[in-house]
Amino acid sequence: MHLASLRIITADVDRLVAFYERVTGLAARRPAPQFAEFAGPAGSATLAIGSAETMTLFGPGAAVPESNRTVIVEFQVADVDAEHDRLRPLLDEVVQHPTTMPWGNRSLLFRDPDGNLVNLFAPVTEAAKARLAR
Question: Which residue(s) pair with 81 in the sheet?
């Protein structure tokens, strides 16, 4: 099995796409106005953003925008502190400023415009680097 993508359902695709373009530095592919995707390097999962109207194809109430309180969208970066400095003007809610976690990752946790948690992290201990070696 291969994790292909993670999709965020939103009421405002354009707003969320603009936010993630700034966070990731990637241009979103937009095959339709209601859908966008960010594809990272080969072997990484895609971050997809879909409008709430696309969920009607799956059934009423299958996903509700701006209601996630359990999933964290995570991106591995080279330098968490540099990303914090770069993104500071963009971030409305920082949940945790750069902190080194007990498992060896340096982490920055913030919310996107829909309230979803986003974690930018970098392994900083030798054990974390070994665990995350690709």
Answer: none
Per-residue pLDDT, 64: 87
Full DSSP string of 43-96: TSPEEEEEEGGGGGGT-TTS--TT---S-EEEEE-S-HHHHHHHHGGG-S-EEE
CATH of domain 1-60: 3.10.180.10
Of 114, 22, 13, 94, whose CA–CA distance to 54 is shortest?
13
Distance CA 77, CA 103 (A): 16
Instruction: State the pTM of this model.
Output: 0.91
**134 vs 61: CA distance, rounded Å:** 38
In this chain, the answer to whether the domains covering 1-60 and 69-134 adopt an identical fold is yes
pLDDT, one tens digit per residue, over 6-50 is 999 999 999 999 999 999 999 999 999 999 999 988 888 999 999
- Evaluate whether the domain defined by 69-134 bears CATH number 1.10.10.10: no
Domain layout of the chain by residue ranges: 1-60, 69-134
SS3 38: strand
